[in-house]
Specification:
20% of the residues lie in helices and 35% in strands. It has helices spanning 2-22, 153-164, 177-189, 200-207, 307-316; strands at 39-43, 48-50, 53-56, 62-69, 76-83, 86-94, 96-97, 104-110, 116-124, 133-141, 222-227, 232-237, 240-246, 259-262, 265-270, 276-282, 285-289, 303-305, 322-326. The termini are far apart.
């Protein structure tokens, strides 16, 4: 009886223990945290905007910059670039914390291997800490082919960049005489000679924003500076260059007078000798339109400008403005 009683007691104790455990539900497992819902934005800051569209030229490096919100350490994105349907670049890029670490940033450089539409696709695969993300951005790589009579986005881009460097150029969208004159003036500024056609070097320098007319008399306020060594005229307001024009100054036998003068007379229209919209600054010397105004010193002492440029200069200069002439 003693053994049996002991066994019964053990069974009863086991059952009691099981009942005691079952009286309390098991603790629920903690569900895994959901990945953060992110957002991805792309910009291409060194592309140009023509007609509301991003553009550049083949071979020119541009940067695709991205911002990811929120920033989650250790994340990367996969960048793919396609020219048309052909992929030409793929790169995995780490996301770095932005100041304050509320967002992350990344940047990748690329250049189109040819002309056409470029699409940049950036993706982040879903992880335990950040949701999946996908963004696309595109731009056109424009063929660098243009000559007199050409029109289209590439010509518009060239005209835009010449104007940004303050060369006088009507934004016609056509490679016309005004475009040729502005390109010629740009070549003069760079000491490259006098020619009105585009080449790869000119395009590259224009898109890089290279070239500056260095004023010598910013203290003269609203004024004109004729640099005879460059055969260029600049209109300026203090230290700000307004517009730049090609000129033809006095030939060796009738040189343009050097010095600092003031506009004392303005005569609109044509004078009997063919001077057009003239701004006289001393004696019979003037800034005026004339045909021809060649790309070398050929005048009787005045600073000739091409006929299409004369009116804009006449309208800008005022009686009393300084005119500074130097080599």
């Amino acid at each position: 009886m003693g053994v049996l009683a002991g066994r019964v007691s053990a069974v009863v104790a086991l059952v009691a223990a099981i009942l005691a455990v079952s009286a309390f539900p098991a603790a629920a497992a903690t569900p895994p945290a959901k990945p953060a819902q992110g957002a991805l934005r792309l910009t291409i800051p060194d592309a140009f905007v023509v007609g509301g569209h991003l553009v550049t030229v083949p071979g020119r490096v541009v940067h695709v910059d991205g911002v990811v919100r929120p920033y989650v350490p250790g994340q990367t994105v996969l960048v793919k670039a396609l020219l048309g349907s052909r992929q030409f670049k793929i790169k995995r890029v780490a996301i770095s914390p932005a100041p304050g670490a509320k967002s992350g940033r990344f940047s990748v450089a690329l250049s189109s291997p040819g002309a056409g539409q470029v699409t940049v696709q950036v993706g982040h695969t879903r992880t335990a800490t950040l949701s999946g993300l996908l963004a696309r951005r595109g731009f056109a790589a424009l063929a660098e082919q243009a000559g007199f009579g050409s029109r289209g986005p590439f010509v518009e881009l060239i005209q835009q960049r010449l104007a940004a460097l303050h060369f006088y150029i009507p934004q016609t969208g056509v490679y016309d005489s005004g475009t040729g004159l502005a390109i010629d003036a740009y070549h003069r500024l760079l000491h490259w000679g006098t020619y009105q056609t585009l080449d790869g070097r000119t395009v590259s320098y224009l898109l890089d924003g290279f070239g500056e007319f260095k004023l010598r008399f910013p203290s003269h306020g609203r004024h004109a500076e004729g640099n005879l060594s460059l055969q260029l005229l600049a209109l300026a307001d203090g230290s700000h260059v307004y517009q730049i024009y090609p000129i033809s100054s006095g030939k060796p036998s009738t040189p343009t007078i050097l010095g600092d003068f003031h506009v004392y007379s303005k005569v609109p229209g044509y004078l009997p000798d063919g001077m057009y919209f003239s701004n006289f600054f001393i004696s019979g010397y003037a800034i005026h339109g004339y045909n021809p105004a060649p790309d070398y010193p050929a005048s009787h002492g005045c600073m000739r400008v091409p006929i299409p440029d004369a009116l804009s200069i006449f309208d800008w200069l005022q009686i009393g403005n300084w005119v500074d002439v130097y080599y």
